[in-house]
Amino acid sequence: MVAWALRIVVGLGLMLALFWPLHALRAGLGPLATWGPPLLVLLLHPLVLLTEGVLAALLHRDDPLPRPGPVARLRAWRAESRCSRRLFLLEQMLREHRWPDRPVPLSQAAGRRGVLLVHGLLCSRAVWNDWQPWLQARGVAVIAPSLEPPFVSIDAHADRIDAAIRHLAETTGRPPLLVAHSMGGLVLRAWRRSRLAAGERPEEVDARVGPVVTIGSPHRGTWLATLGALLPNVRQMRRGSRWLTALAQSESAAWRERLVCVRSDCDTIVFPPAGARLDGAGQDLLLPGRGHLDMLQDPRLHRLVQELLDAP
């Protein structure tokens, strides 16, 4: 669904960029009216990211992390623009199923943990296309579902997550490692709450999974969600939302201890940066100068995941 939406939006943008100048020239419009709209279409993506970066800088306020300087933010904006352009316009739009799920047989998995990769809002399984080759090359069982439809309650994905966790556990004989980006971290926390609501005991649910790595997840909400009042999952990610409060109240200290919260001081989606930190989490990994999607490319994050996979 996300892939088709991107194709439609990009197709309309290209049509405007190509045909508007012809119309404007025939109508005798001036240079600004002729070339302004196509130029705006071509620059819209980096301009949106730049606006988000300015908002993040203005709303950093008294966040415990030191405020990044203008040079650091500009570098993060440039890297994020390049990374997100590739992930959206190439991987997600054209290569969603480039790397099919690979739940290898138990004999091949040799007791190694499987990995469940969970994407965030307005994304699909294709955001993990850079992760799939090195995980699969090590014989790791990988499942990366596309969570659809995109604009529903975060709780609506719990059953799909539960099925993937069960399948990985049956395939490998071990509780899987869970890795989630952005809203995906809340999806995993909502999955646990759904199992408690179904009558499972907390210790039984916790034992079904290994470590949980969340990357730029708005555990405390994000200011940017204030702009998405019409979308149910965006409303849930508002700072101080009743949904986030109820989710936190359902969790135990033992569950939070297994979480690793990865965040950045230059995240332009989850800001202020403290929004990506969860009280009681077992580990807090800071990736300075990285954008929201660009964090997925950081070698320190890859090393962390590798260490968790190799741990006994």
Automatic annotation (TrEMBL):
Domain of life from the UniProt record: Bacteria
InterPro entries to which the protein is assigned, alphabetical: AB_hydrolase_1, AB_hydrolase_fold
Gene3D superfamilies reported in the protein's UniProt record: alpha/beta hydrolase
Domain called AB hydrolase-1: residue spans: 115-309
Pfam families: Abhydrolase_6
SUPFAM superfamilies in the cross-refs: alpha/beta-Hydrolases
Name of this protein: AB hydrolase-1 domain-containing protein
